[in-house]
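Lab meeting, item 3. Inverse folding demo.
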């Protein structure tokens, strides 16, 4: 049984999320979908903020910083569009059919994750909530070791020298 993109689901036993390439047998196995890696700690932090308030900045400054960070977080949208134009899925657990290096990928290898991080910061500052900021280093560690490192290994296996050249030319974050 296969899903779109020539892949079959994996993870029933090891509780990872992935989609095995039906042709090569390769896959990216993730601990959780990246949006969930950001959303759960953010939601928990906001709940903790209601029960144990702690302010980051004065309310007016926090609002401005939150709006700026949140607005910058939309850098992820052109990244999704670049994937769509290349006829490949932005979902990291679905096999890539193209190496996307245009649009925001000219400046960062992870514009979607940069966008998620900025949106996360935007919400934390806009709500002036300290708890989500305390969880952010954990989120970034899970993203780095649980998602990005696995994706990069998969991309190197899938796209070989083209990906290695891209890695040398474009930074991981900024």
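The presenter then showed the designed sequence:
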């Amino acid at each position: 049984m296969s899903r779109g993109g020539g892949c079959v689901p994996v993870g029933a036993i090891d509780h990872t999320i992935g989609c095995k390439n039906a042709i090569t047998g390769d896959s990216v196995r993730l601990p959780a979908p990246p949006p969930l890696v950001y959303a759960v700690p953010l939601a928990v932090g906001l709940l903790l903020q209601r029960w144990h308030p702690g302010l980051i900045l004065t309310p007016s400054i926090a609002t401005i910083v939150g709006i700026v960070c949140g607005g910058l977080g939309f850098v992820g949208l052109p990244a999704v569009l670049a994937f769509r134009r290349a006829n490949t899925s932005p979902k990291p657990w679905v096999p890539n059919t193209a190496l996307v290096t245009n649009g925001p990928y000219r400046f960062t290898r992870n514009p979607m994750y940069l966008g998620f991080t900025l949106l996360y910061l935007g919400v934390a500052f806009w709500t002036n909530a300290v708890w989500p900021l305390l969880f952010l280093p954990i989120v970034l560690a899970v993203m780095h070791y649980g998602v990005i490192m696995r994706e990069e290994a998969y991309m190197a296996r899938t796209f070989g020298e083209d990906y290695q050249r891209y890695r040398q030319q474009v930074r991981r974050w900024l």
